[in-house]
Structures are given as C-alpha cells and as structure tokens.
Design a protein that fits this description.
The protein has about 190 residues and is α/β, with parallel strands linked by helices. The model has no long low-confidence stretch (mean pLDDT about 95). It binds guanosine-5'-monophosphate.
Length: about 190
C-alpha cells in the first residue's frame, strides 16, 4: 500500500459549527477525498438517502456490528442515537486509492486519532460562539426544541476539546474558513 491508502482526514466540531459545509467544499477542491459514510440509528431526514448520507440501521443491527468489532469507532452521539465509522467503509475508500473524510463528533474523532495516529489530519472547526451556533441550528430548521437544546448543551462541552486536534479553524466567515482548510488539506495530501 502506498501512503495515500492509509491517510484519513477528520473534520470535527460541535453540531452546527459548519463542518459539513467545509467538508463539502474540500471534496469539490480535492477529488481524491471521499466522504466516509457512517452507520447511524437515527431516522433519515426527508432529503437523505440510504448509503449516501448514512447507512441507516436499527439498534439491533448496530449492536451486532459493535459485537463483531466492525467499527473503527462508534458513539452514542445523542441520547439513544448511535453513529459509527465502519472499518469496511475505510477499506472501501482506501481500495479506491482515495482518502476518507470523516465528518464525525469530537469523541469519535479522538478515537480515530488514537487508533490511526500515523497518517491522520484532524481539523476542529470552531464556531465564533455558542450563541452563533444555536442560531445556525435554528435556521437550519431540522431540530425540535428538545433536540436543539441537546445539541447546544453538547456543543458547550465539545468546545473545550479543541486543543486535542492537529489544527483548529475558526468559522467566523465560511469563505475564509474554507480557504484555510484548503491550505491545510493541500499540505496534508502532498506529504
Ligand atoms: P446528524 O444527526 O446531524 O447527521 O449528525 C449528528 C452528529 O453525529 C454530527 O456531529 C456528526 O458529525 C456526528 N457523526 C456522524 N457520523 C458519525 C460517526 O460515524 N461517528 C461519530 N462519532 N459521530 C458521527
């Protein structure tokens, strides 16, 4: 295997910090990047597709995969909602001679970093403030009052982890944050 096979790019942040926008932008700029499709037990949103946004599955199937050690990492990201990166997904992407991009929560990112320390770049996307993050989540319109509160609470906690990652990007302006991400990822892919 050459080195590109073993690389992993992690984009992590509290929900609503803008990591998905930055991830999408990076994938347009660097065709070698391939989105790592996670397994998840939450329900698909209206515009989401099975095997594109997530591998949606029931709790039983997810638990079975945990027992079979099929996950590179998994987390209960929200109360009763499990998300995980399948080892088979990383292998699928490496076999295409591409670099998986993991858009995952902070704890999951820490796990992957620990397991694959050699060729991994982890980028933490920092929102300007919890207030801005709350406004972004509200305007996205995908959350109920309860799930919004859960995401905001979790975000405050996750923000304290920024120093655990290789790089932090402040997302006060999406264009500027994307440009910074392009520079970091460009260097990472070259080495
Ligand atoms: P959403 O429900 O909005 O799609 O995602 C909720 C959170 O779960 C986001 O922060 C997302 O990055 C995270 N997430 C998605 N996939 C995974 C995964 O495979 N592992 C972990 N640990 N978190 C994930």
């Amino acid at each position: 295997m050459n080195s590109i096979h073993q690389k992993i790019l992690i984009i992590t942040a509290p929900s609503g910090a803008g990591k998905t926008s930055i991830t999408r932008y990076l994938m347009k700029v660097f065709p070698v990047l391939e989105f790592s499709i996670s397994a998840a037990t939450r329900k698909a949103r209206e515009n989401e597709k099975e095997g594109v946004d997530y591998y949606f599955m029931g709790l039983e199937e997810f638990n079975h995969k945990i027992q079979q050690k099929e996950f590179a990492e998994w987390e209960m990201v929200y109360e009763g909602k499990y998300y995980g990166t399948l080892k088979s997904e990383l292998k699928r992407i490496w076999s295409l001679n591409k670099v998986p991009v993991l858009d995952i929560d902070v704890k999951g990112a820490l796990h992957i970093q620990r397991q694959y320390p050699e060729n991994t770049l982890s980028i933490f996307v920092q929102p300007p403030s919890v207030e801005v993050l709350k406004n972004r989540l509200q305007s996205r319109g995908t959350e109920t009052e309860e799930s919004l509160a859960a995401r905001v609470n979790k975000a405050s906690y996750e923000l304290s982890f920024n120093h655990h990652f290789d790089k932090t990007i402040l997302n006060d302006d999406l264009d500027r944050a994307c440009a910074e991400a392009v520079k970091l990822v460009g260097d990472f892919l070259q080495n």
